[in-house]
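Support request, please re-run this one:
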Amino acid sequence: MPGTVLLLAASPAGKGCLVDAASVLPVLAAVPPGVLSGADTANVVELADPLEPQAVLTRLRAAAAAPGPLTVFVAGQLQLDRRQRLPHLALARTTPSTVRYTALPWHWIREELRLRAVGSTTLVLDLHADTETWEWLRGASLDCGGNNAVYGRIAPPPSRRTVAVPAYMKAVATILRSGWRPPVEQLHQQALARVGVDGYADLVLASPGVGGPVPGGAAPGPPYRPEEPRPRTPDGLAVAERQQSSETDPHSAISVAVRSGRHPDADALAAHHEQAAVHAHGTGSEEALHWAEVRADLAMFAGDPVRSCRTWLGVAVARLAAGQAADAPAVEAAVDRAHHQWGQVRDAVAARELGAALADLRSRVPGRRQGALDHVQRQLVQLQTQG
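Re-run finished. Output below.
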């Protein structure tokens, strides 16, 4: 039976925009429909910056009525209406004073999906909240319906005069573009890992949809703590802090070790899981490469750009050897991160060694920014003059 996929990306036009939600749609649209849905085939409906809540409701109602599995991808921003203080998904014409009339009430989504069979519906969410809604979420939950599987994150407001990107959803789309859809729980964890340290303050949504606790402010595990630091780096760490269940999550243990300064312990734990993944799935498997990427970011956090650069180079080579294209997002990201870390290396001997390997890779993987190979070659010439 074919599945149904609804891609909804919405954010207000103008200065009220917190996130460039629609920027994720080209990446999602490049994923085969069957991979998006987890079914053999699927019908895909795309809504990019819709204007009217009733139009969104019509499409949502049709998707909910379709037989077979339904997957709803939503990227956008949450705002409260001033009268009832209920969460809404802001649309293109939404302003703080018109939320009630121009945004999509979140409970419409819950109600339209309410009668679907347990286990037939999955929501994948990447939402940003404005300041008022973020405060509301500290004491309330975003009710998506107890029968629906819900995975994703709600991010706090970005800094002033900054428009955020749907990094979690882009990570999901990048993983799916490989042509293989892992179990949704695994997909969720991999996406969180790619979001990195920018996701430390996020409210994580993870519910298998079996009538258990509704994700959000009332979910088990520690809520957002405003006093906790939210570190940022140019690359981002491939280890995300997330809420805990009865289950053991090695990423959280690694995150705790990093934040307490126990970098060797964090790397040892990641190395253990990398070896286990290599043994179970092979050197070039996505599972093994994920842990190699984790170790590359751990080296960066430990202040070891030589090891970080070398590891990223190894990841890129392994992905190319596994048959991934030179312009595949994961390949380009690995080379870009190796390039960045190489720029942090202060030892001339190590910089020359890594620079030669980076130049070779850059000739095959130029990346999206023009002049990357020229930059490496110019820096290598300067390094040669240093003796």
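Confidence is low (pLDDT under 50) at residues 211-245. Strands lie at 3-10, 42-48, 70-80, 87-89, 104-105, 121-129, 149-155, 203-207.
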